[in-house]
Design a protein that fits this description.
With 232 residues, this protein is α+β, with helices and mostly antiparallel strands. Helices cover 34% and strands 22% of the residues. The protein contains four helices and ten strands; from the N terminus they run E-E-H-H-E-E-H-E-E-H-E-E-E-E. It has helices at 34-81, 85-92, 130-148, 186-190; strands spanning 2-3, 10-11, 105-110, 113-120, 163-169, 175-181, 200-206, 212-215, 223-226, 229-231. It has a five-stranded antiparallel beta sheet with strand order 5-6-7-8-9. The longest helix is centred in the N-terminal third of the chain and has 48 residues, at 34-81.
């Protein structure tokens, strides 16, 4: 039956106008059937579910964006704390110029800075102490640093503790020296080196002839940088 919205008279389902008052009857004016009510309720539930899913996806995207931004910031922190560390490593690792035996004192000057390296041709380089080996390596590192890092404080003979020297013997009986930066030293702290790292900046060795060479472990490509013993 169709109930008239105006007078409440119940008309036949096929009637388009109320027999009592003549008002137009429509299907929208009639109470919902149970099936229609269920369908409408189901649609509302689906809308709620879709809305909840959309909110969850938005939250996931927001959290993911925050995590990425935080990760980028963390990865850049050491670089911002010590922007000069990489520069130091690459600069110190450059090849030092070879020193001839004819000179008792070699000096390298750059921008008014003078660094003296004392060459001692009478010292037997095939029979050096641990301290002598470290001094020989440091003398070349110091000269190379002061030549190529003119915007940094100069290294002096007293700054040898700015580097760590690890000695070992390779398969050929040569003494190999791994050199690392000591970021706990006063010099490295003065240039704001990142305190939690000790980067390796070069490998050296003294070969069978007693020459100081620079290269890489396990490689045949070693370059001779000094034939006579030197001290800073």
């Amino acid at each position: 039956m169709k109930k008239c919205p105006q007078c409440g008279f119940e008309n036949q389902p096929h009637n388009q106008f109320c027999k009592q008052c003549g008002a137009k009857l429509t299907d929208e004016d009639q109470p919902m059937t149970r099936e229609a009510a269920k369908e409408k309720s189901s649609k509302r539930k689906r809308k709620v579910i879709y809305l909840v899913i959309a909110i969850i996806l938005i939250l996931i995207l927001v959290l993911f964006g925050i995590a990425q931004a935080t990760g980028k910031h963390s990865s850049k922190s050491p670089a911002s704390t010590s922007p000069k560390t990489e520069k130091k490593a690459s600069s110190v690792a450059k090849k030092a110029p070879a020193t001839t035996a004819a000179s008792s004192t070699a000096a390298s000057a750059s921008s008014g800075r003078q660094t003296a390296i004392h060459t001692m041709p009478d010292v037997n380089t095939k029979n050096l102490t641990t301290q002598q080996v470290n001094k020989w390596v440091y003398a070349n590192i110091m000269a190379d640093w002061n030549k190529n890092n003119t915007d940094e404080p100069p290294l002096t003979p007293a700054d040898q503790d700015a580097f760590i020297f690890n000695q070992s013997t390779d398969d050929q009986g040569c003494v190999e020296i791994q050199v690392q930066e000591n970021h706990q030293s006063a010099f490295m702290k003065s240039i704001h080196a990142y305190p939690e790292s000790t980067p390796t900046i070069g490998w050296y060795r003294i070969n069978a002839q007693g020459y100081l060479q620079q290269g890489a472990p396990g490689s045949d490509n070693w370059n001779t940088i000094a034939q006579n013993y030197q001290e800073p």
